[in-house]
Design a protein that fits this description.
Blueprint lengths: L2 E7 L4 H14 L6 E5 L2 H6 L7 E4 L5 H13 L3 H17 L7 E4 L11 H10 L4 E7 L8 H9 L2 E4 L2 H8 L6 E3 L23 E5 L2 H4 L7 H16 L3 E4 L10 H12 L5 E3 L7 H9 L3 E4 L2 H9 L4 E5 L2 H10 L6 E3 L7 H11 L1 H18 L4 H8 L1
Parallel strand pairs: 1-2, 1-4, 2-3, 4-5, 5-6, 6-7, 8-9, 8-11, 9-10, 11-12, 12-13
Helix pairs in contact: 3-4, 4-5, 5-6, 9-14
Length: about 400
């Protein structure tokens, strides 16, 4: 039996790297039996993802296909059919390697929180062929659901949700072939690396921001004004260093763009640094986050690094995933910020609260995280359920 990961993508999103490595440790399989579809082989080799799973390059769109796709678009106006035409070309050769004894592990965490995509296509493709599949470590909210997504969710052999809010949403739609375990990334350990110079200058506040929470690649949104208040407070009222920590480096989502804008706008006295995340793997970034006295994060797997190392953290979310994980861990509601429903001053209030209570927060996390992180390994029970 082999496990196939068509939605791995690549470590340009360090969360994808984390899920692949954490899942491999949970399954305790030789990498020859773990097959991942990869969009950036060179990067994943540099990040040592291929030490955990066997990588295959995603099929590139050749000129012939581009011409056919252009013609198809001109004839077909149904958006899903257009997407499926592309997905068939990109994913069918990979999925056709699977036999009746194999299992598809559909990773990606929040892939079902966005537009109808390849998660739906791949499960439908395999369901028609009688091949088993697991939606692995997922989050999905009520507002994310569509009839096509609900149909796809029912086609999975089993679902592993990474927090209980998703379980509640799906139970309301009579989807009960589901278990809840922590995200696979919780079982990973920090890997020591050289710390940036800012750590020798004093205590460091780690901040990760994305275009999703900012509302684009500028600093003009309502939430950007809250970030403005936070940055100015730290620089004017404290002695903390600020380390901006990019976590997703994909084109169109690159956290470095926001980080550079913030450094250019506010760093008048050299107290803002940007982590060279491009040259660090996920567990090395986790190590850096663990050395911060407080972490403020938008990317889920960056916040998971803070939680798992008991670093006092503020989760900036815009979907069910951040609220669900925080709820299950039991962190204070004062440390959860919804960037879509931001109240003026709330981000700064959350920071002041976290700094004031950082020792207590860290101690409370120490009591919980050892057991919580180990629970992620129990996700292997999902495989047992599918095999029974």
């Amino acid at each position: 039996m082999k496990y196939f990961f068509p939605i791995h993508l690549d470590g340009g999103n360090r969360g994808c790297e984390a899920i692949a490595k954490g899942t491999a440790l949970i399954l305790e399989e030789n990498k020859e039996n773990l097959i991942g579809l990869c969009t950036n082989m060179k990067l994943d080799h540099r990040l040592n993802v291929d030490d955990y799973i066997t990588l295959q390059p995603k099929r590139q769109r050749c000129m012939s296909f581009r011409i056919k796709n252009k013609m198809y678009k001109s004839l077909v106006h149904d958006d899903w059919k257009r997407k499926s035409f592309i997905y068939r070309y990109e994913y069918a050769p990979f999925l056709n390697q699977m036999g009746k004894d194999d299992i598809m592990i559909s990773t990606g965490g929040d892939m079902m929180c966005y537009d109808e995509n390849q998660v739906i296509y791949t499960v439908d493709y395999l369901h028609k062929r009688g091949i088993r599949s697991i939606l692995w470590g997922c989050s999905i909210g009520e507002k994310n659901l569509t009839p096509r997504k609900l149909q796809a969710l029912k086609q999975f052999s089993y679902i592993y949700a990474r927090e209980t809010l998703t379980q509640e949403v799906l139970a309301n739609h009579n989807i009960n072939n589901l278990s809840v375990y922590p995200d696979p990334a919780f079982i990973l350990e920090p890997v020591p690396c050289e710390l940036p110079d800012c750590f020798s200058q004093g205590e460091v506040i780690g901040i990760n921001l994305s275009n999703y929470v900012i509302g684009g690649f500028d600093l003009n949104s309502a939430f950007a004004k809250e970030v403005d208040s936070l940055i100015r407070y730290i620089l004017q009222s404290t002695d903390y260093q600020i380390l901006l920590i990019p976590h997703v480096l994909w084109k169109g989502q690159d956290d470095r763009i926001i980080s550079n804008l913030i450094k250019e706008k506010y760093d008048l006295n050299g107290r803002i640094s940007i982590l060279d995340s491009d040259n660090l793997a996920y567990c090395q970034i986790r190590y850096v986050i663990s050395k911060c006295c407080c972490f403020i994060g938008a990317r889920t797997h960056a916040v998971i690094s803070a939680y798992s190392t008991c670093t006092p953290a503020i989760a900036i979310g815009y979907s069910i995933k951040s609220r669900g994980i925080a709820k299950d861990i039991g962190v204070s509601k004062e440390t959860i910020i919804d960037s879509l429903k931001i109240e003026k001053g709330k981000l700064l209030e959350a920071f002041i609260y976290t700094i004031k209570n950082k020792a207590e927060i860290s101690n409370q996390m120490l009591l919980k995280m050892g057991t919580y992180c180990k629970e992620a390994k129990n996700a292997f029970d999902v495989i047992k359920s599918v095999n029974s």
